[in-house]
Amino acid sequence: MNASSRPPTRRIPIQNPEWDVIATDVKRVMRLTTELNRLGFEGDVTIGALASELTGHSVDETFTLNPPLYTEGGRNIRTGARPSSTRAAPSTT
Hints:
Residues 65-93 are annotated as: Disordered. The protein is an all-alpha fold.
């Protein structure tokens, strides 16, 4: 089925009080990821602020993001400071 033969998209009502909360959160995530992806590699302070809003917790001041970012909901993303060395410790055996 090609795009021109598809019926128009419409919202399907769901009889669940949590649906509006979920729909609102999806819109929030779509807005934030769009903003983050538009920034590109510039605007580090703005990237950190938007990432904090997306994840629901503050990100480290050294946080960087290489767009594009795709996420399902954002709340389960965890970030942390990068270790000072990424090399494995020497073997003692």
